[in-house]
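To: structure desk
From: M.T.
Subject: fold request, one chain
Message: Could you run this one when you get a chance? Sequence is below, nothing fancy, just the single chain.
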Amino acid sequence: MARILLKETCRVGEGSIPMSSSKVWVRIWKLHIPNKECGVAQDMWAGCPHSTLHTEICRGQTDQGNMVQLFENLMHKLPEDALEFFLVQGWLIWNQRNLVLHGGNLQEPGRLNAQASNLLAEYKEALAIPISNGLPQSWYPPEGPLYKLNFDTTVFTDMTTSGFGVIIWNDRGQVMAALSSKGPAIMDSEGAEVLACLQAMEFAIDVGFSKLVVEGDNTNVMSSISSTRTDWSRLGNLYDDIRCLAGRLRHVEFCSIRRSANGVAHSLARYARHLSEDIVWLEDSPPLALEALYLDSISMAN
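Reply: Done. Structure tokens follow.
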């Protein structure tokens, strides 16, 4: 009867046993019948690199009535690393049982020990990798006598055109100038961002600003603009034009920001879809970007 119950249970690849059947399993394991022990588990624990774990498990085969009791006993006697290794071993044994049950091949127990070590090491390495908190970046006004220029672009694939958005602020977060402009069809995001930056710089110089902090949300583009190396790519001439314009300013800084800190410029770029000609605002807040402006004002207050 015990063999029948064992056979029926193994036929279902479950990872846990209902509490109502726990007494049945305790009784089965107390019966004097052969083949109650798992040979794979015994061989695996015999080759375990944790000597304390091997000793306690061998002792637990006679001292403990079931797996729960064995685990409770090990919790009080094993160091944390050995207990972790034991749990991974248990999972691998269970997984090996299900693999064989469904037609797979039985692996060498020693290989399972090596696999347990590798899994633990991989998991601990993953835990050591710092995780970004993912918090959105907020917009902040410039310091001192500087003005902040934010720009962005949007590609309208259905219209074979693009849109540029530019906004310039003072150190109190007040809008000094803004632009929404429709541009040519552009095939990739880098080209669109470079053209947007070029137009933003031209706009800022035309309306009379000479001390700028320029912010864009394309990291590669902002890094290339700041680089002093010659750019031989297809966009190299555009990068050179931007640097040439920067040379005409009394002060300029180029910074990369997240999209969450570039909301107003993004709204202006999207609005260009509806334009037939450029729209410019001077010392006035663009009505179409009021929501993004409100969010930026909240971040300033905080």
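Reply (cont.): The chain has two domains: 2-9+25-128, 147-301. Let me know if you need anything else for the meeting.
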